[in-house]
Amino acid sequence: MEKLELVRKWSLNTYKCTRQIISEKLGRGSRTVDLELEAQIDILRDNKKKYENILRLAQTLSTQLFQMVHTQRQLGDAFADLSLKSLELHEEFGYNADTQKLLAKNGETLLGAINFFIASVNTLVNKTIEDTLMTVKQYESARIEYDAYRTDLEELNLGPRDANTLPKIEQSQQLFQAHKEKYDKMRSDVSIKLKFLEENKVKVLHNQLVLFHNAIAAYFAGNQKQLEQTLKQFHIKLKTPGVDAPSWLEEQ
Question: Which UniProt keywords apply (predicted)?
Answer without folding.
Answer: Coiled coil, Golgi apparatus, Membrane, Phosphoprotein
